[in-house]
Amino acid sequence: VAEVSQVGDERPLTQGKFSPDGGLFCTSSWSGFIKFWKVPSCEPTLTIRAHEDRCNSIAWHPSCKGAPPFEGQTVRLASASADSRINLWCLTESQPLGVLEGHEDRVNRVVFHPMGEHLVSTSHDMSWRL
Predict the structure, then answer these.
(1) Which of 111, 4, 114, 93 is nearest to 48 (CA)?
(2) For residue 55, which of 26, 19, 92 has the smallest C-alpha distance?
(3) Which of 43, 49, 68, 86 is a good FRET partner for 75, with 20 to 30 A between their CA atoms?
(4) What is the pLDDT of residues 3-57, one digit of tens each?
């Protein structure tokens, strides 16, 4: 078993997730950045300023495959933040493809339905949203 360690950010990391095809690893952090790393080399491939506040959670869309540079305007990743927003990313732009608002406090987690048809979020406002 190979062991690799990588400093992911200057602030604490909040989550790490493999892409559905296993070719990328994505991290989120208190700095608001999400970063993408090739697997198994740990080579950084993409960094996005996802939020102005802490990025608490990331979720890959189940149909996402491949590695940067991505093409097309398809949701590939969701990120949740202490700013109470959820950003939807196509990963071809430095700006989100869409923003979901409605929580009244920080969003703790996001997760896609296994078929990719729905996104669920949980929040410190004691609610979950579909």
Answers:
(1) 93
(2) 26
(3) 43
(4) 667 778 788 899 999 999 999 999 999 999 999 999 988 899 999 999 999 999 9
Determine the residue type at 50.
Answer: A
66-to-19, 38, 43 alpha-carbon distances in Å: 9, 10, 15
Select from 77, 57, 62, 58 the least CA-distant residue to 116: 62
- Where in the chain are the domains? 13-129
Query: Could you say which architecture CATH assigns to the domain 13-129?
Result: 7 Propeller (2.130)
Considering the entire predicted model, what is its pTM? 0.89
